[in-house]
């Protein structure tokens, strides 16, 4: 991750939020290039998910909704993570990310070790157990550690497990439920009656507005409602850069189907759609996999959830969750609000509350996946080049425009004209400083797919040198050919 984080900071993709005040944990800012990259990802999704389909409605619901939305959805009671406090260090840990194991020598329990979840949790526990045995000069056979997380600890074990903060036992509390919703107050009063929440997901907006959309848009089931927007979760341990933050952006869609429809068919359809879409913005198939949530871990109403996983540098993690949620959410809102969520199906001549398939993804996790898989350090003619092989659809800058030299007004004039024409449609970058090779390197590093150089031949025959970022090959093209290339590859 280190070189990627450094590049993001150096070139203005991602900054720590409020950095001049020391930063605030779990919040990030997207700089000039990062905001372009993110916007391109959002635009691709919106175009493919909403505009290019006939069965989709777009939505932008408010971030603060009536608090009863979150009671009906189950978030007030149950949107919690298990939290463990260390009373000595005042640090807090997510119980399911804090692992421990008994140290067993010759079949006898002699102590405990603990470690925070990482790529090598088991190895770390094993090393600590071996250290313990050496320190105490214990003889006998050490059994391999058996890692469990703190939600699985027996009540009498908790005080024996060392805190990962201090290495000492006795300071960890039993896990308790911690609600992750950020609270705020609406209006001038600050009491229980004015409590509201920053939404922890965008999905409830689609359920709460289901009636309004269907009554005004003449949509017929099966159809979907999609939206992109900010979500907020007071994560106990935000980590892995923008992978798990406290303010992030979601792209969610609720696809409503008939109660008689084959939900498994639609579930599979949307898993495949999501995977294909990730490939279309350049994520490599080799980094993608699927994870089916085991039946016994699903919520009682859930029919099935499959996550599309991505191989990040810190491990294989959830990128996109595709859940078959039955009609639980609409029924909950129907009951809590007293407003019917029933839909009259003209074709089937019957009324029912539709079931739903929900693909939910975080934009920030896609940004990180794109950056991680695009980053490369390559050797070119004995020199190192850092390059982001970003797909042209999402690359923040589509082309660099360079006059070969900056002190020939006739070259600069033609280049400037080309730059201004292309800039109307594409984010292109003007650069006159330094040798062409240096200008290429600067563009490679931010993932610009093409560099267009205006040289003396351009004045003669109206063609320009177009250099490809990935192959580094150069061809001559007319302005019309350049426009056709950009149009085809970036839309
Ligand atoms: P996780 O298990 O990683 O906490 P989740 O299963 O709680 O995620 P969902 O509630 O299904 O996540 O949210 C849908 C999507 O929103 C996730 O697949 C992920 O891409 C994104 N997301 C969730 N939490 C965060 C976060 N804290 N920071 C960034 N993105 C997030």
Features:
binds adenosine-5'-triphosphate; globular; seven-stranded mixed β-sheet; 29% strand; alpha+beta; 491 residues; five-stranded mixed β-sheet
Global outline: globular
Number of strands: 26
Low-confidence segments, ≥5 residues, pLDDT <50? none
Radius of gyration using CA atoms only: 27 Å
Structural class: alpha+beta
List each distinct ligand once.
Answer: adenosine-5'-triphosphate
Main sheet properties: 7 strands, mixed
Cα end-to-end separation: 29 Å
Number of helices: 14
Fraction of helical residues: 25-40%
Give me the side-by-side strand order of the main sheet: 3-12-13-19-16-15-14
Q: Which range does the strand content fall in?
A: 25-35%
Mean pLDDT: 96
Textual characterization of the structure:
It is a single chain. The longest helix is centred in the N-terminal third of the chain and has 20 residues, at 32-51. It is globular, with a radius of gyration of 27 Å. It is built from 14 helices and 26 strands. The strands form 8 sheets. A 7-stranded mixed beta sheet has the order 3-12-13-19-16-15-14, sandwiched between helices. The chain has a 5-stranded mixed beta sheet with strand order 23-22-24-25-26, sandwiched between helices. The protein has a 3-stranded antiparallel beta sheet with strand order 5-4-9. It has helices at residues 2-10, 32-51, 67-72, 75-78, 121-135, 203-208, 210-217, 263-280, 328-337, 363-374, 409-423, 436-445, 456-461, 479-490, and strands at residues 14-16, 28-30, 56-58, 80-85, 92-94, 98-105, 108-116, 148-149, 176-179, 183-185, 195-197, 223-232, 247-257, 288-292, 304-312, 315-326, 343-345, 350-352, 355-362, 375-380, 383-388, 399-403, 428-430, 450-454, 463-468, 474-478. The protein starts with a helix and ends with a helix. The mean pLDDT is 96. It has 491 residues and is of the alpha+beta class. Residues 201, 233, 235, 244-245, 248, 250, 318-321, 360-362, 364-365 line the site of adenosine-5'-triphosphate. Adenosine-5'-triphosphate binds at residues 201, 233, 235, 244-245, 248, 250, 318-321, 360-362, 364-365.
